[in-house]
Design goal:
This protein is an alpha/beta fold. The chain is about 45% helix and about 15% strand.
Length: about 450
Amino acid sequence: MDIIAALEPWAPHLLLLSLSFTAFLVLCLPIRYAPPKDRKVRVVVLVLGDIGRSPRMQYHALSIARKGGLVDLVGYNDTLPRPELLANPSIQIQALKAPPKILDTSTPLKFVLFAPFKAAYQLFSLLYMLLYTIPPSTEFLLLQNPPAIPTLVVAKIVSLLRGQKVVVDWHNFGYSILQMKLKQHPIVWVTKLYEIIFGRGAYANFTVTHSMNHHLRESWGIKTRIHTLYDRPPVHFQPFTASSRASFLHSHPTTAPFADKILSGRTKLLLSSTSWTPDEDFSLFLSALLEYDRRASAENFLRPNSAPDVLAVITGKGPLREAYLSRLADLEFQAVAIKSVWLEAEDYPKMIACADLGVSLHTSSSGMDLPMKVVDLFGVGVPVAAVRFACVGELVKEGENGVTFETVDDLAGTLVRLFDPRNTKELETLKAGAMRETLERWDDNWDKIAAPVFGL
């Protein structure tokens, strides 16, 4: 009673403070979804990564805009996206501020120490962007997974507070990528549990393979709609004519010194696009090139000009690039030349269209995603030699549009066999199969599978 009596004179002030704080919280609540007057569908496309290095999410944005929708593309603006995306008035890039460099998580120790702080920074950045910057007329939130942390929980919060429909585009599983770094650390299993819990309840889901679709239904118990949306090449990936190929080979500084030999068949152009990450074993490719060099050099010693040279062009950026390039500098080749180059968006489809064969080193941390770089190569009609793993057969058809391999000897033997000038039939068959793949395009596939999800 003494306490109540003491507080009684302050009661009006405390009531006013309580009401003021409540009003402040109410005012801070984001505005819920309100249908736009022009009835145009508005979608947030979220990629917690570099927009310019996220082609599938760029293609989603372009497809939504092409069908008459409006897009806010949220992500890090480190690399220039495709020119047609930048020029599209229906697409607005909402750039996120990158976490401070001190929150680097590139090593296992740094991950354990700084990952919680990095996730918290990203959590608040995303919440501010999605709750207060994005217009309330936004009906859908399309997000890429992985990364799962913190995007899945952010999507759940945004859905509850703003009433937006969440669509998850499953590229892979975040926990399986983390497992490559931390092995059997308890954090991996906590992350998997988080991903299973917050991965449920989305309005709809896309997966990149039927294997992943089945896994989400049967193993994770996801009951909402799941659509397999295969990666397909967009229209700017087109096969080259002979004259276009010759023109590009002579004009690009990487290939110009080798252009005449490539065009005559005395040098084969081998291309591999890599993200220089642990799930792509570049050492396997390098060892296979060393073995090919040994075999081709021996063959040419006995029968001059009987085995072609190889120019291997490796494109892409990633954490392991510098380590492998320093290793390359110590090696000597006679019949092989290796060039590492970063290609701008305009030159990338042209370079791969010039290749005689593409090589995919992607092994999949989960065994349930597919290498998009193979899709790019098929888009320009180039056959592929790909690492064999669980679901790669959903994309690479053995002996039809490509071949698969497991070991260094497998790949080296494949190169020797396919590049043998005395037996060109197998490579010609694979080339014909890859050309048939050019008939299936992203726009047609997206219109059939994804457009109805957004009511477009």
